[in-house]
Design goal:
There is one protein chain. The chain is of the alpha/beta class. The protein has eleven helices and 13 strands. The chain folds into two domains: about 170 residues, 3-Layer(aba) Sandwich (Rossmann fold); about 120 residues, UDP-galactose 4-epimerase, domain 1 (Alpha-Beta Complex). The strands form four sheets. Strands 3-2-1-4-5-6-11 form a seven-stranded parallel β-sheet, sandwiched between helices. The longest helix has 18 residues. The chain is globular. The two termini are about 35 Å apart. The protein binds NADP nicotinamide-adenine-dinucleotide phosphate. NADP nicotinamide-adenine-dinucleotide phosphate binds next to helix 1.
């Protein structure tokens, strides 16, 4: 019988790349998602189940017979009923359901530099969940990516979109804060490898290059052939402008928290790189497709 693995957000961004690799390796995949009826590239090859966070028994039943659970579930910002608090609560339910269902291994996607003391709920919530996983008794690998890049990306895509669309590009603050982007399929490869191991560990999932935000915007501009003047705005003013633009697109472009995380260099690792794909090379191949359309977080997660 084929082994069964479960992926949360199976047809989402990271989850899709993990699922492609699992199906390619002949593993049976079940998916947990908020949108079990939404068509996906996987068609009949994946069985989809709702998260059922409010019915832990049902959630545990979905996980019966599952060997490995890959967890990508999280929320990027508080919006409506989806909040960091609910994401932490729901993930605790998921961890407990996995334990009760006898899942052999949990591969959990976190973030670089989480901290229980962080004033930023994203980083604090991720730290609380890492703590819950370590205390769960499950065999685990925790992967901590920085900002991801890939064709379905939001941040890098929307930088390209704004560069294509507007005569100037506004950066909050001096833009010297740094990021260490990681290719989404490299993260998926680490996740699938981690599933086959038995040791408990926590690992930063980071690419080979560190960029200042200024350099990142210039690199994307060079690759897509758009070099509008880059202006540095006082952060609050830039965030207000981003807020207006976000409202125009019915989305949230960047939150104050995300800016604070970025400007505190939280999207950089102090460990050696673990993922091979350089952003520059990926951009050279994918620039024509990048930023052709605005990528909306709200459309992706809140529209039926
Ligand atoms: N994207 C990045 O640049 C980045 C950077 C660092 C860390 N990470 C971490 O990597 C993991 C995967 O990120 P991703 O970008 O690949 O996520 P994603 O595919 O967009 O979403 C992952 C899962 O979370 C659910 N979800 C997302 N937003 C939600 C909301 N507002 N309300 C309810 N459910 C929501 C999705 O629901 P559906 O099943 O309905 O799609 C999916 O199950 C996350 O844990 C994230 O913290 C991502």
């Amino acid at each position: 019988m084929k082994p069964i693995h479960a992926v949360t957000g199976v047809a989402g961004y990271t989850g899709k790349y993990i699922t492609r690799r699992l199906l390619g390796a002949g593993i049976e995949v079940i998916g947990l998602t908020n949108h079990p009826a939404r068509p996906s590239e996987f068609g009949e090859r994946v069985r989809f189940y709702p998260f059922d966070f409010d019915q832990p028994e049902r959630l545990a039943a979905h996980l019966e017979g599952v060997e490995v659970l890959y967890n990508t579930y999280w929320v990027r910002f508080d919006h409506g009923r989806s909040t960091y608090e609910s994401a932490v609560r729901n993930t605790r339910v998921l961890i407990d359901a996995a334990r009760r269902a006898g899942v052999r291994r949990l591969v959990h996607v976190s973030i670089t530099n989480p901290s229980l003391d962080s004033p930023l709920p994203y980083f604090q919530g991720k730290a609380l969940l890492e703590e819950a996983i370590r205390a769960s008794g499950l065999s685990y690998a925790i992967l901590r990516p920085t900002v991801l890049f890939g064709l379905e990306d939001i941040l890098i895509n929307n930088i390209a979109y704004l560069l294509r669309k507007f005569p100037l590009f506004a950066i909050p603050g001096d833009g010297t804060y740094r990021l260490q982007p990681v290719f989404v399929d490299d993260l998926a490869a680490l996740a699938v490898r981690a599933a086959g191991e038995s040791e408990n560990y926590t690992l930063d999932a980071v690419g080979p290059d560190v960029f200042s935000y200024n350099a990142l915007v210039r690199l994307i501009g060079d690759r897509i052939g758009r070099r509008p003047p880059i202006l540095h705005f006082e952060p609050e003013l830039a965030l207000s402008l981003a807020g207006l633009l976000g409202r125009f697109y019915g989305d949230v472009l960047i939150t104050r928290e995300e800016y604070l995380g970025l400007s505190a260099d939280l999207l950089v690792s102090s460990q050696p790189p673990t993922c091979p794909t350089p952003l520059g090379e990926w951009l050279a191949q994918n620039a024509p497709a990048l930023g052709q359309r605005y990528a909306s977080e709200i459309a992706r997660h809140y529209q039926p």
